[in-house]
Queue: 4 jobs
Job 1
Amino acid sequence: MSSRTLPLLFINLGGEMLYILDQRLRAQNIPADKAKKVMNDIITTMFNKKFLEELFKPQELYSKKALRTVFDRLAHASIMRLNQASMDKLYDLMTMAFKYQVLLCPRPKDILLVSFNHMDAIKDFVKDTPSILSQVDETYQQLIEMYTPMCSGEFQLIRQTLLIFFQDMHIRVSIFLKDKVQNSNGRFVLPISGPVPHGTQVPGLIRMFSCTGEEVNRLKFTNGGNYTAATREGSFEIFGDRVTKLGTNMYSVSRPVETHMSGTSKNSAQNTKQVNAAPNPLAKEELNLLAKLMGRLEDPNPGNTDSGFRVNLFATDEEEEEALISRPDELSYGVIKIQATKDLQANAELAKIMGEFTVSGDQSPSASSKGDDLLAMMDGL
């Protein structure tokens, strides 16, 4: 497992979330000033300096429940509200889109280009707001400094860590199904054609060398695909052509997007529940860090008196209600609704999440003290 995976996971999922919300805000004809406020508030919170300092520290990935909780909080960082079914759908779309992008990356290092595509789009969302733009530019620099010196092996470890995180997620998405890149069981179809990864050659030739390094024979074989020569490498700088389209906005052309549970996902949901119930020796540390991170996600406009509005990711309210009823309990999480003033419901939700973590072994007095500190931090939210 790579300890450098979390920033890439967070930024790419955050980018997908912004694509989806932008599309829904337009589809529901939300006034431009309110839509802009929502996007600005979420991006401001997402790129909060202290929050990112914690995020970029070497650490293991959060559990799925902890990460989902962070994105629940992030999605409600402004005046927009989502019902639980819409939040479930939003998170499903985010995770499946990024899973697809990770699977299709020609090289493990191209995950960084996907991240830059998301960053480029985020930068475009706030191009008219210099204060937020500077936060985004600072994150670009952090990404470049941390990831560009990495070797291929380190990127392969990051890719494997991400795929392990996503392996039980098989939500069917209408866009992917219509484009025939996803099967009815929720698994993706990997292409056997197109350009080969940068720095490689089209398969079909075996060359044999002598012990002195001299080529002595060549054998050709059928590669079973329709491959072409590699394209030029994308830019890993702040400005530049990323070449790959992975990580760009697939909702820019308006199409209805639906999600459906596959049979595989329903079965794996039960397995996930059993895994989550197992004692986790890192639970206390993870929860302390989560509390610290969530403490950074304050309402950017605590004195805001604007009335909130609800965004529905379904075509109708009836569809939203039906989706909530039909979704397996194991894959549904309570949505934390953040108000302009701190409310008791958020504390109750956090306390519930904390109660679902179990720690094996005896607790020392110092460990107990840490737990008390955590409760105090949560009470202060």
Job 2
Amino acid sequence: MYISCFFLENAMKDPRIDRAVGLCKKLVSSFSYSWQRKRQLAEAQRELKLPEHTLKTECPTRWGSRQAMISRVLEQHKAIAQVLSDDRKARHLIPSWQDTDILESISKALQPLTEFTDALSSEKYVSVSFVKPVLHLFRSSILKVQDDESDLTCTIKNKIMTYLDDKYNDPLTQELLNVASLLDPRFKLSYTSEDDVGPIQTRLILEMGRTAHAAMAELGQTDPHGETAEDVTHPKKKKTLGSFFKTTEGTTPRPSPEQQQQAIASELQSYLQSGNLDTEEDPLSWWREHQRLYPRLAKLAKKYLCIPATSSPSERVFSTGGNLVTCLRSSLMPEIVDRLVFLAKNL
């Protein structure tokens, strides 16, 4: 669930928004470069019993910073007005009631996106299977236009929802998200449309079959009658009468393709009919405990659930590399940079 800065600029194309956001930037800058105003702001916060928070500046490459800046200005509006009202040169920076209404409309529309984006950008847990549920939640409640909302808030919500629908409307992307949700024991088919259930199950059955064939091919490469290192180091023991029966019963024939297909379909249906996991639980821990019961599905879960929902993890790696390779360390070998980035991300 990645909202680009380019999209944010398009969604915020409105003269009213440009004026209010521009006023916020000038307001924050006036406090950032004046220690005297910072001190006065802290005194006003204590007097008005407001949280002693500093103002936040918008970062062009981080779309969530705009919402953070607006939210902080709204929180400290009374303290800001008290400080600037005594300064004739900066009095014009106090947001008017029209500007405040616009800022509140922007904050109300962007606040849910900030929270969900931060959650989906994490690297500590499974995130790709959350995309379909989050989109459903946005469409049904969070970004649904309410009667008591302002026209500006409704416009922003509609633009955001249109962008998300276009972004995830690709058939291949939808298929990937449906597979990831199905392999998550917390959701399975809860957010998959009825028309997509059949094709998704067919795809999983085919992939489970390929996984089974690959596993049997690996087993077939080992020679059951070949001499191993253990046979060389340890002399063979004299056979007992029971060993003949064990050898005879151990050579079971391979299942036919029809039997294998039936076993695969039964495994998938058994998984789908089992109860859903609580949404706060870890699906990877669940698969670790149930991989013997669903061996083929467990391999597919490892394949799909490791996909990150956003590009934030890869961007963090590039940022780490940029912090390591500076002008003073430009002669580092690529292998050394790889090791340093690995240590920085894993220690």
Job 3
Amino acid sequence: MMSLLGRPDVDAGEVFVNFNQNITSLAVATSGGYSLYSLGSVDSTLDKIYHTKSDELFLIERLFESSLVAIVSQRAPRKLKVCHFKKQSEICNYSYANTILAVKLNRERLIVCLEESLYIHNIQDMKVVHTIRDTPCNPQGLCALSSSSEHCYLAYPGSVTAGEVQIFDAINLHAKTMIPAHDTPLAALAFSPSGTEIATASERGTVIRVFSSQDGSRLFELRRGLKRCVSIVSLSFSTCAEYLVSSSNTETVHIFRLDRSATETAEGHGGKQSSDDWMGYSFFRFLSKTVTSYLPTQVTDVFSQGRAFASVSLPEAGVRRMCAITTIQKQLRLLIASQDGYLYVYSIPTVEGAECQLIKRHDLRLEDHYAMDIKGLNSGVSIGGAAGVPPGGTGGAGAGGSGGDGKSAAPVVGGGGDKPGGSYASAVKGDEPAGPSSSSA
């Protein structure tokens, strides 16, 4: 979800942490290799699925519960490798003209984000089906891909000076809508599980907004804080889509409840309510309209913005953290994976304003210290040398978009020119063997 290239925390030995699309596993990359963990019993134990020694990685994405992972190493930051981790084999690799800043996956598409272009691959055969060129400069690799195959949308910044979100239909390959989300540039993007909603935050970090990804209408406006501007690091919908969680460079993680029933009631006066509830609601609306009619727009916005349902205060500020909310063994859990090497598990209260209770703290470095010494991934394949130059790679990866400026040329297939076949497509849909019988030279 985040690129660590060129960041001081990499040099300081921080770990890369990343959840898969449906929050069933956690990827952890350190200087010595990477590990994959199952989150099914995270309340008590963290079950290791896989560990391997490899070059230091700064990007790793697992495709749902399949055996497919997409990785980018610090030694070759322009080369994407798609691997079958259970077979310890490389399926294919692609080299790009510039550094890969982000990689996103779902069951239909694989997205590679460069600073000024986006490549859309068909994940069934890894061919490039489209290239979005000359995008606004995006040095952080900010983009989001819906995990839904039905609403397979890609989002990326539409401006370097304002918080515009460009929504692109990654199946039908056309721009869908542009959302003027914020006055200042974007800092975070996240799709809901269905892909029909997108959450946004700007560099100011005080307000989080939720829009319809289909027509761009604003659905929710949530206030993270009033006192200070912060850098939003992580933004994520819960797997049930009823909550939104955000983390920043502060020590506080905020959870917002997306009360769609209240919104529907307010709009259509529907549902059965007690007279007391309805009178209270009516009085609140009357008071809000009366008071805010005499106040500046900036103040009335504060009245209408939702506040955090719950929050968590962690020991230290300035640590990058990835957050997720999912149901584990029928219980709603907040998971916070931090790049100082810890995974926190919290319960989420049912009453607004109550505290989240810490259930478990897993030490990811300790877990990796006792990992099995499994044969390194693709030990027969050289991934050193000049960055982005595949060993013996030839041939084009397929055409996408139109034109070419040299800065965003079509990626080159490496690994001896082998392309993924039918077995690869089967592995995308399930967890079957994938990759060519001899995947490396």
Job 4
Amino acid sequence: MLVPNSEDLETVGKDLQMMFYMVAGLTSILLVLMVLFFQDRPPTPPSAAQQASQRLEGIEAEQVSFMQSLKNLITNRNFILLLLSYGINVGVFYAISTLLNPVVLKYYPNHEVDAGRIGLSIVVAGMLGSVISGIVLDKTHKFKETTLAVYALSMVGMWIFTFTLDTGHIAVVYLTASLLGFFMTGYLPVGFEFGAELTFPEPEGTSSGLLNASAQTFGICFTLFYSELFTAFGDNAANTTMATMMLIVGTIITAATRSDLRRQNAQAGSAAGNPLTHYTTLPGKH
């Protein structure tokens, strides 16, 4: 909407410049607010598990390093499986989002504005999916089950999106793209939370950083791969490959991930009066 289609490159350049100035202004305001008001941690631990983690940090402060934490994560089988499945799911989402414009315009020429709004619909539906996924996790604590369900539904959403593009009704594309965004973006907080469970008491910033790095890496590879498939064979082949080869593989990997809920165990241990006995600390420490 901010950068409408135009034959005049100078007009497009001015529109892009204005959009970038707006983004720069908003992010600058956020930066100032974070510097002034963002706290490192709450005054008191938000949960018994975090209290146990902070106590452990105090005990092992001199022995725990970033490299040691990284080593603990990359030798954690369940986290590596999550790293792969998370990267695949979010990578496919990045590829679809990046190449949404040519896919939509293939079936609906001169609908550039609709292509942008469909992208917006994906994001808004994804925000709703993220909130609902968080509520489900908070109420049930079924981390693996929720992750597997959302992953499988993302695959179903991808199939529906693929085979409804050519209906001739762009409203259908709005609906199916929103459904896809609801589950694929809704998977993001589920993956982060499951990662925190599998890697507790390692710093969540490290595990979430690795998950993001995996998503970016898969996203670059899948975008290039999707683009080649789209150019050579069309959108059906590209979308089917993403849904079949990638998301099915990711669903299988998710199913193979063991539900080792260390944070929940620490929470239960705190309730029992011994919060440090329910998860493994550093190598050599028992």
